[in-house]
Specification:
Elements lengths: L42 E6 L13 H9 L4 E7 L5 E7 L15 E2 L4 H14 L18 E2 L2 E2 L5 H6 L8 H4 L3 H4 L6 H8 L17 H14 L3 H13 L22 E2 L7 E2 L9 H4 L2 E2 L1 H12 L6 H7 L3 E2 L9 E2 L4 E4 L5 E4 L2 E3 L2 E7 L5 E6 L3 H4 L5 H20 L2
Antiparallel strand pairs: 1-3, 2-3, 2-16, 4-9, 5-6, 7-8, 10-11, 11-12, 12-13, 13-15, 14-15, 15-16
Helix pairs in contact: 2-7, 6-7
Length: 411
Amino acid sequence: METQRTADAQPTDPTAPVLSGRPRKLTAVIATAGVLAAGAIGVGAWSNSANANADVGPDPHEATMQALVDAGYPGVLASVTNAEGRSANLALGQGDLAAGEAPPVDGEVRIGSNTKMFVSTIVLQLAEEGQVALDEPINTYLPGLVTGDGVDGTKISVRQLLQHTAGLPEYADKIAADAFGAQHTYISPRDMLDVAFERPAAFAPGEKWAYSNTNYLVLGLMIEAVTDRALATQIEERITSPLGLEHTYLPAPGERQLRGEHPRGYHAETPGDFRDITDLDPAFGWAAGALVSTPSELNTFMRALLDGSLLSAESIAEMQTTVPAGDELTPGAAYGLGVQSYPLSCGGVAWGHGGDIPGTQTRNAIGPDGTAVTIAVTALPWAVVSADDNEQLLAHYRMVIDALDETLCGQ
């Protein structure tokens, strides 16, 4: 998640959380604060995951990951899963600043707006089952719920919600503008929807593309209404259990601690002045950005999503039908139904999403050859550098995206 426009929603308050992949508008910059390069510790060479079948993993690009630590991110966790399904994992930097401990290899992290890929997958499965129609108005499934100033659920399709072309106003910047203030606060999805609809529609349905976490809040409610089951149950039964993902889950209401081994996540009101924000009630993210996973399990999910394990070829084609979604940070990007495409520097296109939430920035995608890469750093860029320095803030966002690109292109 992010704030004001969250992870793709631009933050008015740079300390606020983000639910998605990248800020739509960035504001200023100064030199990097709180660099941890000196004295940084880490787990050395890439280690094959427990379920790997090969003696040697993919090219590690360890120096690329170390550069993220040198730039001020407290810790870095990365996983590369090659086309044959063999994974190699790396952890560098510090997983606990107070204890001076290395981050755990392939530890659990909050994956922010990557949650949207899971939600979209379930919606497309429901469409395959005939329980949902992508071009049906959302009012069909949530009668009278999606309504407000310029907001009319009879004119907004399920597809438009999935693709961020519905024009719904953002809620996350108001709910979690103060990351530390929201850290231990629970708010229900229905109450968050009320907050969103205090604002007018951003634009008419189908008029253009603009990222809004509210779209996926509505989709989560739709899934529960159609299935008569909790969203967390649907994620488990339809995705995580079939794929054997033991560390990927939607936290229960009020659940603030990560269940498995994990690095500490950090946020800051003053750049570089890190405060632990690991224990967090992610209710403000819910269907838009509350999931927990590990880098290797996120790779497993992305590969299964695109290889037909979870969706039919027809549904994958629907998912990969895109509209332009590029900006100064990711020129040439496009958005499908819960997934994004990114042009690679070496040619071709990668598919994935990415997610930001206080304490973790995650970037992940699959390249044309089927290699999947996930990189998680344990702070958001504006916890490391000033959000008032647009140039430096952009640079810190780009370096994680560039690390992803370099790793995918090096396979």
